[in-house]
Amino acid sequence: MGGGVGGHAPGVSLGVEEEFLLVDAASGECVAHAEDVLERAGPHRWRTSGGSFHTELLGSQVEAVTGVCHDLAGLRAQLRYGRARLAEAAREGGALLVASGTPVLGGSPPPAARGERFAAIVSAYGDVVEDYQACGCHVHVGVPDRESAVAVVNHLRPWLPVLVALAANSPFDRGRPTRYAARRMMEMARFPGAGVPPWSASAADYDARVAALVESGALVDGAMTFWLARPSPRWPTVEVRAGDAAATADEAVLQAALVRGLVGAALAELAAGREAPRADGQVCAAALWNAARHGLDGAMVDPVSRRAVPAWRLVDGMVARAAPALEETGDLDAVFALVEGVRRAGTGADRQRSAARRGGPRAVVDMLIRQTESGGLAAGTGPDDGTDAGPGRARGPLGGPAGRPGEPPGGTPGEKTGVWDAGERVPEPDAT
């Protein structure tokens, strides 16, 4: 991410990188319009604090990066802005912006983006990257130094599968249902060293491991690791890349808030002299596969206890783990509200499957387009509902009126909160 995160309080500053797909307005298939969209989008409104728009590996992908943020309302404003600006630029060129971990519909593999580094990646990995259109939500949180970053990553390891399950938003892959909630994890597994990172004793230990991967040719350079959490190679931050591209801005806010809370909890543990548990790498891999396969449907593997645990119990445990840090930043109530929205309404993967049952894969793409530009936890409201927030409008969990770009979420009076409009809700599961 951009900006000098290290200049701000450790465990408080944060930023988000969101990757999106571009699809043809007529067919719904991915199109290589990235360069045109980025040219139309122009500079980022928050560029002075690191906000930017970028290409990704393939020509059908674009990325919006927030500047350095310190509160969730400010982060949400930047997320809403980035999505709206890229969506507008895409629409001007006959494309549409979609937030999904993998493409819903098929189509010809797009060319790689231009640039020496992208060319080196294609040369190194061959046809593994030819149609690698996976998109994620990457969260950066400031930490004091590199030693702290490595130690924090150790503490995050057991929670990465839970973050994956909560953010699952890729059940389809190029026209077919995959039976995975987060198929993006399987796409990432194409690359060496993907998944939960190994436990590292120190920054030197971590760096030596990365250097060995580079020397072997498994990585193009030291900045290219595929682990779901790592010390950022550019900034004094911890970077967590567990979540699929978030269907809505609010779900990106939720990932960011939980990651910041978990980093805060880890820093507190380290200050008290407590190292992270050395959860077995193979059990972590099994937990990650289970999370990708089933999402929050059923049981998950707890890498520390090595037992199957109801998925939502692990989510609640993760929130409890992060709660002291969330309370310190004033985010606990907002996180409770956002988590409850997903609990009632389902993950992005749940909603994609529901849309497919109603209208097939194209209906999924249409729903994703709406969700990408929506605020999120504001049932029946959004940037295109044609209404202004007035005295009668509800307030959202982050404060402020609902449904306007760059403002926090809410809902109209009497509505049940969800993460899309009323016609797209997933039925709530039986309490039994």
TrEMBL record:
Q: Which reaction does it catalyse?
A: L-cysteine + L-glutamate + ATP = gamma-L-glutamyl-L-cysteine + ADP + phosphate + H(+)
Region described as Disordered: spans on this chain: 374-432
Q: Where is the composition biased (Low complexity)?
A: 380-396
Q: What is this protein called?
A: Putative glutamate--cysteine ligase 2
Keyword list (alphabetical) reads: ATP-binding, Ligase, Nucleotide-binding
| Record function comment | ATP-dependent carboxylate-amine ligase which exhibits weak glutamate--cysteine ligase activity.
Q: Which family does it belong to?
A: Belongs to the glutamate--cysteine ligase type 2 family. YbdK subfamily.
Enzyme Commission numbers on file: 6.3.2.2
Q: Name one molecular function that GO assigns to this entry.
A: ATP binding
Which terms does the UniProt entry file under GO BP?
modified amino acid biosynthetic process
